[in-house]
């Protein structure tokens, strides 16, 4: 008989386990009402126990050795058989129809058998890998001898005028993208026996706070734990080494932050291709941290962002990108909704010459009144807020802000003096201002000269500034801090500093 306390606990967790209960029990309320309440509560408790145990089995392998995991699974399989025999003889259900308890036990045993199979496969895989690591040099030597013998035979057949066998392609280890760090992470994930994670930061603090010196064994354990955890450059969280991806600039990203960066780059072409410290991140180098769906979407977006003067469907309910193979004689046919769009004016298809687009002309007139410029490549409008007249558009095109010609093909001045002076006053106002006008003027003159010298700043050195600030790249307001370049004094958030500038 189930106690009232166990019943209360069971029904308290029933809502959280409803999804599992629906899968394995498919509760029928009309049958539950007809059965005694104690039997229903017993069935609920048993279902809850089986589902919670099966769900936690998948995480048990990460914190124990293979022999212990195999023993635990075998014992639970034996227990499930005993439960099945015990509940198989009870109940007042119809003959040939399994009760909810019996169905739960059967599914529970299937999960255990599946976990046992996974564990056996893992043991076999690790055994094969260890054998390859142990006999790797011998296998390479034997393969080299085999290739040499095959090459000698082909030479002899060619000299003797005899048709030789099919050539054996030379075998090499494709290690261009498999550096030592990646191999170590793969080994940690799939070869070595995982160890239980520990909060070694708090343990270190406790050890330092104690008056007694730490032992050599404790120091070795702490150093090993620290070596297996690295800081993510984006979120600053401490992440397992196997879950961190090292990018070309040697910064490390956790799996979630790297995936978020790739997703952001597909919606904001100023972040495309994904990069850190101005160095592109090749998806092939970090593919084990990205999902197959994300990689597929990235490849599709790459084709879109690499297309100059892109055309999108003129149907506002669609707006899909139209590939070049779907464009014939300036008429682009949308593959999704079949709408035909004019590639010249980007409006719905029309006969004859492109009519005057009054809405576009109004936008261009507003741009001319405000001094905005238009990119010669992607035709988007650009407004220069700070900096010199050298514009790098989101699409990658570089042009002069004054005449919109390609950069370094026009005689225009590099700086607008009014904009340069306004920027210099902004930079001076951030720091301590001189007591008299002469000191302020000297500071502004120095800031102007620094901006002229640093107009092609590489942003190699940054300083951390506390307080609420606004990023001068994405214009988002940060409530707690911001980064400021020590050379050109541009202020940027962490995302823009690492991945956009």
Could you outline the blueprint of secondary structure elements for this entry?
Elements (H helix, E strand, L loop, with lengths): L3 H11 L3 H7 L4 H6 L2 H24 L5 H23 L11 H35 L1 H25 L19 H11 L9 H10 L6 H12 L1 E3 L6 E3 L3 E3 L5 E3 H13 L7 E2 L2 E2 L11 H14 L21 E2 L2 E3 L6 E3 L15 H13 L2 E2 L6 E2 L7 E3 L5 E3 L16 H14 L6 H17 L8 E5 L2 E2 L6 E2 L2 E5 L5 E2 L1 H7 L1
Antiparallel strand pairs: 1-2, 3-4, 5-6, 7-8, 8-9, 10-11, 12-13, 14-17, 15-16, 17-18
What is the beta-strand fraction?
Answer: 5-15%
Q: Please estimate the helix content.
A: 40-55%
Order of strands across the biggest sheet?
7-8-9
Q: Mind describing the biggest β-sheet?
A: 3 strands, antiparallel
Total strands: the figure is 18
Q: Tell me the Rg in angstroms.
A: 34 Å
Count the DSSP helices. Answer: 16
Terminal CA distance: 68 Å
From the spread of the alpha carbons, the general shape counts as: extended
General description of the model:
This protein is mainly α and 501 residues long. Helix content is 48%, strand content 10%. The chain has 16 helices and 18 strands. The strands form eight sheets. A three-stranded antiparallel sheet has the order 7-8-9, with no helix packed on it. A three-stranded antiparallel sheet has the order 14-17-18. The longest helix is centred in the first third of the chain and has 35 residues.
Write a concise synopsis of the structure shown.
Helices cover 48% and strands 10% of the residues.
